[in-house]
What does this fold into?
Amino acid sequence: MSGANGKPGQGGKAGRGREKALVRALLQEEGRTYAEEAGVRLKDAPQPLYQLMVLSHLLSARIRADVAVAAARALFEDGMRTPRRMADASWQERVDALGKGHYRRYDERTATQLGDGAGLVLEKYRGDLRRMREEARRRADGDGADETAAERELLQEAPGIGPAGADIFLREVQGVWPEVRPHIDGKALDGAARLGLPDSPGALARLVGEEDLPRLAAGLVRVALDKGAAERVREAAGV
It folds into this structure.
């Protein structure tokens, strides 16, 4: 295990106790998922899964996370909560909603991508991303591939969703899609390194219950993006 300064962390009971204290503090201080922050009550159902896809798209741009979350809230508040409503909205309505969330640098391109992405979800999955999950399972069964890798590949078929957007979706959806667990990607591992926590998804996952994996991943990402978050977690943990 590596510490925040790149030096080996302490092993044994003392090291394990430190890790558990840090993770408890992380969940307390920074463990709010981005879906929760955007007002998405995530469950394995068409509407919240689509809303998570939209949020993942917005978060993957080079823009502050709070701006992306605000833009997602604005889209949903303006009625664009489903792929049908997103596709039926005019391009200008999508631009206006993004502007309400101050998502202005990429608003015109993103408005187009959101419309095209909604069309893809409607055409390929009849508006239900659980069918994407089923397609990933079929691909995995057919060629021996990893199911999560297939889901990651299928997500990137949507305009504007690249590897980063797919990872954001998978980090959050692991709360309701068990096959994804544990999904702790490179950005989350950067946060773990900053706190001196284990450097593998499996080792990190053993520090929390399965129900807390999305919160753990989100908290680690926040620490990776904000040095102040790391300091708050260390102070709360008393380490």
Observations:
- The CA atoms of residues 109 and 116 lie 11 Å apart.
